[in-house]
Amino acid sequence: MNRIRAARQALGWTQDELAEAAGVSPRTIHAVEQGRACRHTTKRLILNALSVPWDHRDDYFVAARKVRRSPERISTPRAYGA
């Protein structure tokens, strides 16, 4: 089970109640509980609302995907507009 959902349910809150406490939209809470990535600011707001320390964020949120740049883009910088 998703840790955010489990923490929310342990408090007896609905998604709407967590969203209001965190200052985010209910749609954001739904997306996070579905395992979608979100911004650090959003993570901090949700964790604060749940009284979870920031140090435990990796236990509650999916890790961000690493983006690999192609070797071509790394070796040949382009001028703006070129």
Please tell me about this protein's structure.
The longest helix has 10 residues, at 40-49. The protein has one domain (3-60): 434 Repressor (Amino-terminal Domain) (Orthogonal Bundle). The model has no long low-confidence stretch (mean pLDDT 87). It is elongated and about 55 Å long. 52% of the residues lie in helices and 0% in strands. It is built from six helices and no strands.
Helices and strands in order:
Elements: H1 3-10, H2 15-22, H3 26-33, H4 40-49, H5 57-60, H6 71-75
Q: What's the CATH class, please? A: Mainly Alpha
The secondary-structure class comes to: mainly alpha
CATH superfamily: lambda repressor-like DNA-binding domains
Strand content: under 5%
Provide a brief overview of the structure.
The chain is mainly α.
Core attributes:
mainly alpha; single chain; 6 helices; 82 residues; 434 Repressor (Amino-terminal Domain)
